[in-house]
Fold this protein.
Amino acid sequence: MGRFDRYLLQQLLMLFGFFSLVLILVFWVNSAVSLLDKLLGDGQSARAFFYLTLLSLPSVMSKVLAIAGFAATVFVTNRLSSESELVVVQASGYSPYRLSRAVFVFALIVTMMIGVLSHVLVPMSVRETALRRAELAQDMTAQFLTEGSFVHPGDGVTFYVREITPAGELLDIYLSRKDDNGDRQSFNATRALLVREDSGPMLLMFNGMAQDYDSADRRLAVTRFESFAYALGSFLDTGVAPSPTVTATDSLTLLLASPAQRAALGTTPEVIRAVLHDRNGGPLLALAAAMIGFAALLAGGFSRFGLWRQILFAIVLLIVVKMLDTSATRAFRRDNTLWIAVYLPTLAGLGMAYALLWRAAHPRLRPMKPAPATQRVDAP
């Protein structure tokens, strides 16, 4: 690799890191907002929130790195063209194919990064997220017992406790549950205990009142009690350990899975091959995206007014490739025998890039603008 190739690759990697950081933060914050509202509403700690959001990073990165690679390629190529660096290098004898060598190496690096994410890190994060959610569901103290605030451990369920003593006794509790028919059941008690039973968690309430509202008859029934036991398992998730799934298993394990392991995953060799092909499609699109961004700008030649038209053209080509990928993915998921469809968008994108590089290598084939007509003036 020549000096200019190393220089171009260095610029691409630097800008790729910048765009990746920006895009990952944007997508990560967007996905974390809904998770934050749910976890804090259930009484979970900030530590659990940060742990789960960190586990979502591999999935976010696998979605945005291809876009970051495209953006870095377009930005670097546009800057080198505006500063006439590409013109100088081409004048020294570098052909468009030779110039694309560093970009192709950069695209391969991005492709391998997304491949590691898709085949290894994303399945691991899915598995760890499922395990962590099961652990949080088992932690009733974090999910159900939060002093001085209303929590919602289930749909239509509201719980409040004023104080929790060091002995684990709940003082001044309120529990309300509303079903799909609009009927509501509410409990107030001065003291309560949360205990585990074989059938699930139980709430033992003392010196309280129960209210049952029938929405159909619009009648309210009030009952006072000295002690009352209420089963919470009907709406409080007790956190059953998640069973292994294909999406939570890395590709190497799937590829080497024995018949017993496939039976435990509830899958077949055909489904495993389909999953592996599907995981290959995303990384390969990054290769096509970077090459399209470079070739589209290089085919435009040098312009003092910038390459904004070529940039828009590159974005349009990338959208076309993404639309082809969406259609191919749908066809493949309807029929797993059409595995070649996963790779067609990448081949189409590389074909577009090669056609643009060929056009850049043959500038004489571009239509020449007619010279402005000169008006002849006769001497007096």
Q: What stands out?
A: The CA atoms of residues 55 and 128 lie 7 Å apart.
